[in-house]
Amino acid sequence: MKLYYAPGACSLSPHIVLLEAGLPFTLEKIDFKTKKTGAGVDYLTVNSKGAVPALQLDDGRVLTEGPAIIQYLADQKPDSGLAARAGSFERYQLMEILNYITSEVHKEFSPLFNPEASAERKAAAKTALGKKFDWLSGFLGTKTSLMGSAFTVADAYLFTVLSWTGHVGIDLKQWPSLSAYHSRIAQRPKVQQALKEEGLLK
To answer: pTM here?
Structure first.
């Protein structure tokens, strides 16, 4: 398998999951300005959406959208515990939190990375994110991970999204439980490895 990624982008989530699952893969970096892959290929021929991540399977098929990719990867190693068994109620609970992260949290960061967004729009996004973080703090409670005690693909995704706060002027320490959670996940060996492989950690 090949993962197309950009350092620190949402593609970090499947990168972490690939390592946690122990699946064989290669990485190919994307230049968003030129839309070229590291090999010089037009990335739009791989993923016409132009976004990362994209996962190319060994047979050439391509899967896009982070929440779909990480569930697919977890299902390749069902004994890893990275996702509950397909069809179980717990799996739908996992899908529920993945949908919340992607639609309510991840999406709200968009204007903060958009140089054309007005100051008012960015301020509104930060206010909205604050409310999402309030909810996530309550949902996490005293649990060590989103789904309980075991690390799952949802933690890889939320860790990735929370990592953006420092780049957009949000102090995560306003939410102590989320800040502690982020620090805890950051210490996982495979997370450290992914960060190093993307040049985000020395």
So the answer is: 0.97
